[in-house]
Design a protein that fits this description.
The chain has 10 helices and no strands. By secondary structure, it is mainly α.
Length: 252
């Protein structure tokens, strides 16, 4: 019962972020350049996939015309099934890769947006930084985002075959695991504002991982909606700020 309630709390945080971001235009200018970059990257990636990668993968399969009529009846449906699998896998990896690149390169912009959300909505005041420390923090923000995004992509590639080996159940398991790591990457900004290292960040998650799972899984499932991945990420970042400050922050 408690786990179900915690999961629902995580899901609701995403929609709170949705409401917060859309009703506060002062946060929009933080995402203008990242959004422009993501549109370009999004369409370029899909053009490359359909123009080169998918034909290359399909070219590795046997041609029915090269076999006897009996074997061609076996190969045709197999090609059809593999074609669907390759297509779904390619689309999923393309979407996730674009999202990960987008969130990594946009990390400094999202960091400033999160800081202002915490200041305006949760009365959080970040410590003062020298120019040198701010520069190092800038690099650290990109590096930490890259590490968590790489873990998300790693688990996505590793677990994707479950979607076909175990119909329906495998897809749910895959989406929940990948969604959890995706959710972690969205909480990183608030954790960095409190100067948490990775060990402290993990300790802060004790007893609250179902909330992170609900938040991350909800955000990840929405990525499957065409073109929604582009505007979704800043909304999910805002939701991460809400979840961290309301449910995960142990500091006064």
């Amino acid at each position: 019962m408690k786990k179900g309630k915690d999961f629902a709390i995580g899901v609701s945080a995403l929609f709170e972020g949705f409401k917060l971001f859309l009703t506060k235009p002062r946060y929009w200018h933080y995402v203008l350049w990242p959004l422009l970059f993501s549109f370009i990257l999004y369409f370029l990636s899909f053009w490359l996939y359909f123009a080169y990668l998918h034909p290359l993968l399909m070219g590795l399969l046997p041609e029915p015309a090269e076999y006897s009529q009996w074997w061609s009846w076996v190969i045709y449906p197999l090609r059809w099934l593999v074609n669907i699998s390759v297509f779904l896998f390619g689309i999923m990896i393309t979407l996730l890769t674009v999202t990960m690149l987008y969130s990594t390169l946009a990390a400094p912009f999202f960091d400033r947006m999160t800081l202002n959300i915490e200041k305006d909505c949760f009365a959080f005041k970040a410590p003062e930084m020298s120019n040198k420390k701010a520069f190092l923090y800038f690099g650290s923000s990109i590096l930490n985002a890259f590490i968590l995004n790489f873990k998300t992509l790693f688990w996505a590639i590793l677990l994707f075959p479950l979607s076909f080996l175990i119909p329906y159940v495998g897809t749910i398991i895959y989406s929940l695991v990948v969604g959890y790591f995706f959710g972690l990457s969205l909480l990183l900004y608030s954790a960095e504002h409190r100067a948490m290292n990775r060990a402290e960040f993990k300790q802060n998650l004790d007893g609250k991982r179902m909330k992170v799972l609900g938040f991350g899984a909800a955000a990840y499932f929405l990525l499957y909606i065409p073109l929604l991945a582009i505007p979704l990420l800043p909304i999910a970042v805002a939701g991460g700020a809400v979840l961290f400050n309301k449910e995960l922050d142990k500091q006064d």
